[in-house]
Write a structure and sequence with these properties.
Length: 91
């Protein structure tokens, strides 16, 4: 995914905004555990927020139960397979 900003040096930039030894160590040495990787992600999001960068909204992939039920009923009312095209042998 193409980013509209360059975050290749975000760790160095972020060091100027924190005085926490834990965060500075994490920014220098990288995460060594799952919890530290979560913290690193939080620091990256904080950096993006400070810089004014926003992630694009995810696409709307929602559907209603009514739409789903209509699609199911469509296939139930049709003979989808015959004896020759049935993957289970038609019997």
């Amino acid at each position: 995914m193409e980013k509209p900003y360059d975050d290749s040096n975000w760790r160095e930039e972020m060091k100027g905004y924190t005085s926490s030894r834990y965060e500075l160590d994490l920014l220098d040495n990288g995460p060594k555990s799952l919890a530290q990787s979560w913290m690193m992600g939080a620091l990256h999001n904080k950096w993006k927020k400070m810089k004014g960068y926003k992630d694009p909204e995810p696409p709307d992939c929602s559907s209603s139960f009514k739409e789903w039920e209509q699609s199911v009923n469509k296939y139930q009312s049709e003979d989808v397979f015959d004896d020759h095209s049935d993957p289970y042998g038609g019997h």
